């Protein structure tokens, strides 16, 4: 169920949830606390005999509709930074970002201040892993540019994303804030007599994902976009001293700033946080995940 009722200044949405699904009250309270421009509220209720999550969203337009207009650099950066800041709010409170509906169809904007209202699903169920970097790229692809300043800004952002082996939400947010500061300073600084100023951008260190082998404490950098682990000499990291590790046991793949693990049809399987993963399917990793290949244990760590 995805029923939408709308007025000029408020949207009401109902999402059906199964009777067996548990609503996380702590997460609901975290969402209902007004934060960073988001003043939407969520409550559990029953509509026509159906159990639902009901949202009241104070906003003027669906964000997708707003993006049909041409955007200036300042508008674009304001919207993007607001979305990223809210995602950091969830992350800092251990509210999984994958429970945010990262789709402009479910985002709403208040035109008076460009605050974006996000929807968070505070329920205990399996959610598909989300890729924030991929969302940002898709979001950018929907932008219609008002001028070359916005075009150049988007080029800077895409270059930033392409140049990073791993994606860090916090570092990317800092980068966007610096672009906003640059925009404000360019508007405010007037040196006179034709003088100009060059604003130095911050330098950002690339992020490297590692495996930490529990038995030896070896620190293994994943420095390739395709990284194979197993007994074979063809592997990027070899484990020749464990019979339960297959010749080509599992692989790690870096895509759009995220790291994924895949079991390569190993004999004794691959586990992430104690759960066996299906061979041939990519599973997105997060910092401090525990990985077991047969009985060989690793910790996934991003510096």
Describe the model.
This protein is α+β, with helices and mostly antiparallel strands and 303 residues long. The protein has 2 domains: 187 residues, Transferase(Phosphotransferase), domain 1, CATH 1.10.510; 94 residues, Sandwich (Tumour Suppressor Smad4), CATH 2.60.200. Helices cover 25% and strands 29% of the residues. The chain contains 6 helices and 22 strands. A hairpin with a 5-residue loop joins strand 12 and strand 13. Helix 3 packs antiparallel against helix 6. InterPro entries: DUF6382 (IPR045962), FHA_dom (IPR000253), SMAD_FHA_dom_sf (IPR008984). This is FHA domain-containing protein.
Q: Give the total of domains.
A: 2
Helix content: 25-40%
Which strands sit side by side, in order, in the main sheet? 13-12-22-21-18-19
> What does the overall shape look like?
globular
What is the radius of gyration computed over CA atoms, rounded to a whole number of angstroms? 23 Å
Query: How large is the count of helical segments?
Result: 6
Largest sheet: 6 strands, antiparallel
Output the CATH class name of the largest domain: Mainly Alpha
Strand percentage lies at 25-35%
Which architecture name of the largest domain does CATH use? Orthogonal Bundle
Given the helix and strand composition, which structural class is it?
alpha+beta
What's the average pLDDT?
89
Low-confidence runs of at least 5 consecutive residues: 189-205
Protein name: FHA domain-containing protein
Domain FHA: 227-277
Pfam families: DUF6382, FHA
InterPro entries: DUF6382 (IPR045962), FHA_dom (IPR000253), SMAD_FHA_dom_sf (IPR008984)
């Amino acid at each position: 169920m995805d029923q939408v009722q709308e007025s000029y200044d408020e949207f009401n949405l109902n999402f059906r949830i199964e009777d067996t699904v548990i609503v996380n009250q702590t997460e609901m309270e975290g969402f209902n606390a007004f934060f960073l421009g988001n003043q939407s509220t969520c409550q559990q209720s029953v509509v026509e005999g159906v159990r639902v999550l009901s949202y009241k969203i104070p906003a003027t337009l669906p964000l997708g509709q707003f993006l049909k207009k041409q955007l200036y650099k300042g508008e674009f950066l304001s919207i993007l930074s607001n979305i990223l800041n809210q995602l950091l709010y969830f992350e800092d409170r251990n509210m999984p970002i994958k429970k945010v509906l990262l789709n402009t169809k479910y985002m709403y904007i208040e035109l008076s201040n460009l605050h974006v209202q996000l929807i968070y699903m505070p329920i205990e169920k399996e959610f598909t892993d989300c890729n924030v970097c991929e969302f940002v790229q898709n979001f950018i692809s929907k932008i219609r540019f008002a001028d070359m300043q916005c075009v150049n800004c988007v080029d800077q952002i895409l270059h930033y994303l392409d140049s990073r082996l791993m994606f860090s939400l916090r570092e990317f947010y800092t980068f966007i804030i610096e672009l906003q500061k640059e925009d404000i300073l360019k508007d405010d600084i007037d040196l006179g007599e034709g003088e100009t100023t060059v604003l130095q951008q911050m330098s950002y260190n690339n992020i490297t994902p590692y495996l930490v082998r529990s038995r030896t404490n070896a620190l293994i950098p994943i420095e390739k976009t395709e990284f194979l682990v197993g007994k074979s000499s063809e592997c990027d990291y070899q484990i020749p001293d464990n019979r339960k590790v297959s010749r080509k046991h599992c692989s790690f793949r870096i895509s759009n700033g995220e790291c994924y693990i895949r079991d390569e049809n190993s004999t004794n399987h691959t586990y992430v946080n104690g759960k066996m993963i299906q061979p041939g399917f990519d599973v997105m990793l997060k910092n401090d995940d525990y990985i077991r290949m047969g009985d060989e244990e690793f910790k996934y760590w991003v510096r």
